[in-house]
Structures
1.
Amino acid sequence: MSSKAILPPAFADLEPFAGWSLATEAERVDKRIHASPAEIRAFYDAMAPRMPAVLAWLDALPLSALPADAERLLWLTWSMAEAAMATEKFDARGTVPLALDVRRFRPLHETDGLFADKRH
Amino acid sequence: MASEELRDAHHDSEAQWRWTARFPRMGRGPVPASRVTDPAGFDAEREAIFRRCWLHVGRVEEIPAAGDWFVQDIEICNASLLIMRGRDGTVRAFHNICRHRGNRLAMEPRGNAGGGRMACRFHGWVYDDAGTLRTVPQEENFHQPTCGVLNLLPVACDTWNGFIFVNLDPAPAQSLQDYLGPIKDYCDGYDFDRLPGQFAYGAEVQANWKLVMDGQSETYHVAFVHRDSWPRVFTSREYPFGRNLDMRFHERHRTWSAAGGDFQPRGIEALALASGPSVADAGAFALDAAEHVNPTRDPKWAFDVVHVFPNFHLLLLPGVYHTHQFWPVDLRRTRWELRVHMPVPATASQTFSREHAKVFLRDALLEDGILNEQIQASCDSGVLQEFHLQDEEAFVRHGYWAVDEAVRQWQEAQA
């Protein structure tokens, strides 16, 4: 496991969910909509109790110069935003019920370079 | 007939109507479904509105440096515009058309004209940041004068609180300030400068632009459409269907103020809200000097919407603002663009809050979008002849009145 570990050692327990560490919103959305409710809930359940520690650990580092493993941990929290909405609002369904397909909302902050210099 | 009588019987007195009484010209009857299905109506909207009104296209901070530009398409008019900041600091708009043979001068959504020069990809004609044609390869071979003559075609352009507006009319009837009229001071003091854009979405919705706008013009639907995604965001035990605090109708423009509910975030949602800004609140600082915003000063105030006719919604919240732009592509197609401006995250926790805010808003808007398409289909069926609006939906109703009025005035001027 250590040879394949991508997260900081302090959060080795989250390595089984490293597949949720994705840099772009397009990838995180793709992961969410193709995950089963059981997969989403498993990620949520593992991550939820660790979130305060994860955020506190990341907040101690300079946001603009995160080491690679810390940045991958940050991306995991961003996927947690997707998993949390799915779990807490939609019964862990990856797609929003009775709604447009999320892929029809183009994230212009990624695809168009909009606000590119203003965001972390 | 019978329904007309019923409708009259239903009216008790003018005084019972909280919002439509403020602008009786908007009427109280049903809205004909043809308003979103009639091709002639769409053509009239193009001529009367989109070719003549001031249209919001973006923010000045999108193009902070000399030579920065972005492209704005206005599909209903088959227009592509190039918005550029010159080396003199002035923001100008041009038709995005090379005068040689009509190629698009800019072929990317945004960029920078190095040295204030921009070259056409087709044959290398070079324009400067004031739109003047500067160099033409093999200039001596052209049969007509080129440099300094075949300049970019300018488009009227002005700004309001840092929002860039254009007007496709070669000689606009009004300045932007006069066009905004009674709403031009509404945002005075709101601290837009401290709130850079943080995320944005673009969606093509298979529905008339007015239907997409309607979906963002009332909170009556929230208790139902967003029962899972946004429970009690705008509703409460006391006000189970939401509560409008204020609506004002200023001829074509309008403003609206609404109260929040007794939202009780739990779990990770509560952590996200505790860790940084949300789509609804990033601290009151942006409002400190904004004396006209939140006109009722209600303690449960949630947001104001400033609607700039014809297709721009500006949502003002504490430390956050959103813009919605509803661009007609054709009669049954709308390019809906949402932008959210909030403080730049300073910590990892705050980026997590922003990501949660993004998902929270996006997922609810997906729920709105599908309704727009279903309503369009119902209107297209020919079965539904009209749709109905209650008094708390007066912001929607006024939208139809304002479009009608603009078309009527234009038609009168043509006659």
2.
Amino acid sequence: MVELRFYFVDDDLASSRHTVYLLLASLGSAFAFARAYAALITGMTDGALIRINIITTYQDQDSPKGAPGSDLHRVGVFSFDTDNTPPGLYVLTIPALIEAAILSSGALAGVAIDTTQSAVAAFVAASTAGGAIYPVAPWDAGGLAGAGDELSYTGAALIALRSAYVGETP
Amino acid sequence: MSYPFTAPQNISTDSVLVCVPVDYIPFFRTFFEQMQRRQTWRSHADYAAAYQVFAQIEVNMVSGCIADLIAEVRALRGLKPDFAAVDPLARTTDMYFSLGDLLIGQLDTRGVLDGTTDYATLSNIVQALVLITNPPQLDEILMALRGADPVVDNILEALRGTTPADETRNIVELLT
């Protein structure tokens, strides 16, 4: 299943989303369909198409729940240096950060994340390893100018963890 | 509402230091998350530039600017040689020279102190200066320059040795 989300803005820059689903085994053909479909619906609206999301989803069918006391609003905030020129930063957040990852002593006890904790260290290492596939800072998600423009994206590799702390979000 | 990006002159120097209670740091994430959204900014270029500024501020809030400030102060104070092998992140404030250490070092270098008093017990420079009870006299300086003979009244004769000084001879002749 592939989900296509088309985002529009109006004259007040208020935004809205139109969603359709496709039965496709891969994302490849979804690019072309999304562009063709976008051409159809932009003829029906005065809003401006500003973004298309093409999404595949892994869905757990067993409806599990988080551990007792888990809180999605308590996030781990990881700021990485990126290999831009000039150098940049990019932030990844992990929801419901485990308590074991939070420093319990020192000046930032209860706030700073222990980067030596095994799960944290593994996450940071995988994010900054620079292997065949690795996370990037998506500075440009690709344009809407024409066929193939969705691949004109630019991104910067994450090269080192700069800081990590616990954030609270509503 | 979306904002155009206005570049700061220099985020490192043209900033203010805001004291945030550590326990309240997590609540600032909501603000930073909003400032790091694409839709907060008028254009993609505005967003990309603003993202960097707010990401840097967020890093500074939990470590960066205070760490830089501490590093600058410690560089000024200087590390005590005994602690050169200690990991910089594990060093404590007592591993660096204090301003008192630096002041006493200056006085030692100039020969003002006597080398025996425990000046670490003094609280200010006035106390240190009061302890200077035997400043060198002129005759002692001349003695040091010319050797072990007793100092005579005539400074030129004292400097040049055993030949009596003559008031008609100048210092150049005496030295040649």
3.
Amino acid sequence: MTAIVRERPLKVIAEGDLTRTGITSGKPVTGLQWTSMAELSNYVMGHGGTLISANAAFDILAAGSSELYRYYVWPRYSTVLRLWMITLRAANTNARGTFEVDGNDIGEWTLSAGQTSERFMFWETVAQSSSAGEVTAEVFSNAASSGTVSIDEIACYEAPRKFLAKDANDVGADQDSCIAGSGIYDSSGYNSTGGVVDAAPSGVTIPRRNSHFHWFDPDGVSATTTAFTAVFALEPEVLGRHLYNGEGLGALGRTLTWTVYADGEPENDGQIKVTTTASAETSTITLNTDVAAWMTPATFKVDTEDISATSGLRGGVYSTLKFEIKKGESPWILYGISIGEA
Amino acid sequence: MTKSSVLGYAVRMGSNALSADYPCDANHALYNANNLQHFHDMSTQSRINWVASSTSSAPGGEISAKQHLVAFYFPVSISVKGGGFPEDLVVRVGAATAGGTLSLEAYITPADVPINTIDLDKYIAKLTGTATSNTGEWAIESRIGDQYDETTPPLIEQATMDTATFTDPANTTKQRSKMAMLRLSIYAFNAIGSDLGYIMGVSVREFHNQ
């Protein structure tokens, strides 16, 4: 038996069976309420997430050519299906091509007549793994296409699960074993009321935010001066998870991992620095390669959200990231930035 | 929260023979319910987070009359609020202009509404803002969610799509999972004259706040 991940697990809660005030201290808790908690636990563990947040370099793709994008990702083990989404734009309506992930052709695209902008979705079945590393996405334009295509968006999402295995990897809680008359504890797995409280702590790790910022530009941005200069005109936002009420964290409460894809010279000591604008936390990565490659990941801390604020913003201010680059003995090129909660 | 302490308490309160009608102390049920609710809140995700390195890698150009500049598509979690509402969305749109005032309109719609014929009755939210900076500024900063009402679910249902059938390893029968797909379509115009204008950044983040 497996645990079901409902699409709307809290319909029961919406009816008042389980809310923060629906269970009152000092009163007995029924099996129905434990069942609702099991459903909520399964929803939390199985409703998927963002692997690569939508980004774009707005590259112009000529007929018969391709553009390759590289991202460093931190996948969650429970994922078995990824949704890749690309958005394309073309003046003509005879554009078509293919899409590859890690060198594997996973679908074709053809722009429809009359569409200014059109999305294409590709499903990739993946083996369960939590290993961090690079994934590549390549958009090919068929040689028979006419005109050019703008690549407006690339994103990847980890699809919700329909079922979760009741093991330590998927952490599916068995709703059926929580009904009246069932035991409260079963050592065989995530069964019964004991299974629900056993599964709940995994809510700290499994639904983490794996993509705070992913950016890749095949043309790159050159570091040509010895003084730090900003990479972007605007600063992207970032917001860490505030895990639970008693955590007591706020400013600089969550540690993120980041890495960059860059190309330089062997003796280069060029640098890229990220600074959080809310708390002035900095982290610097120094180039250590003479071939295009991902640099050794580093960490930095960001502010966590304020759950009591309607926007989640701590102090009502967006926590943003400022990226700056400078050359070392010679110029270098920044191609990609990936930030996740490892 | 430590797993052992909570679980240990549940075990101490009874045994396998006890009925789940009276499983254990309500305080611990409430404790777990609170944590699970909070873990759900905290599992909300950034869906779009993009900034341009320069105007040459940004959508835009000479702008006078209202024109569509760019669209991002993104999935949203089907909310615990029930009725098919997505989570609340925190949206930012950044823009730059070479002069004057660039006006922006951003529409959140189901993904399958034709982009060239946005019907004023079929958007979930309309956000507006202006940009006057030639280097870039966040022209739209808005949280949407309050706009959802009882007339909205049918649109979200339209946007709900099935994956191709696949075998979930936890259940070998063919099953499907669903994701509701939305689109952020950005239009720009200059009320007076014509000038260069660019979209320099877009972010959409889910946020669930009880």
